[in-house]
Amino acid sequence: MTVIHTDRLTLRPMIAADAEPYAGLRFHPEVARWLPPAAAGVAGAAVTSGQIEAAGAAIARFEQA
Description:
By secondary structure, this protein is mainly alpha-helical. Helix content is 43%, strand content 6%.
């Protein structure tokens, strides 16, 4: 996979270790309101283990592509 580096940013494919921070972003109420409903449930203040698991599954789908 291609990794892009600039002075201020690195873009790389997501990996399994990104599941928790990705879930924090994906299920944040201000982000989730603009996205289709997620199978892991409603966005809330705290990220649940189910949401982290769902984020990990999404990352796994990207890895297979």
